[in-house]
Design goal:
3 helices; single chain; mainly alpha
Length: 92
């Protein structure tokens, strides 16, 4: 296993765990009725959109791992810059 493959494997494990923890946090907030509280709207919105971002990162890591292309710049040519992705998700 190359260094890149090991990094992608670790990233996928971490992202899988992060998605589970984010979903658990979201569910606890909802079950406590905090999603209706005006002081927590921004937090609830961000926590609700976080699983999609985490899943997208997981899929990207898996895709790169399967292709074995790692840090090849040509692979990044079709990938939008991170700030554009985040601003699109945030509704900016």
């Amino acid at each position: 296993m190359s260094d890149e493959e090991a990094i992608f494997d670790e990233a996928m494990d971490n992202l899988r765990q992060a998605a589970q923890r984010i979903r658990a946090t979201r569910n606890r907030l909802w079950s406590a009725g905090m999603d209706d509280h005006p002081n927590y709207r921004d937090l609830i919105h961000r926590i609700s959109s976080a699983p999609a971002m985490t899943e997208a990162a997981f899929v990207e890591a898996r895709r790169r791992s399967e292709r074995g292309q790692g840090h090849n710049q040509e692979v990044f040519a079709d990938t939008p810059p991170p700030l554009k992705c985040l601003s699109a998700v945030a509704g900016a």
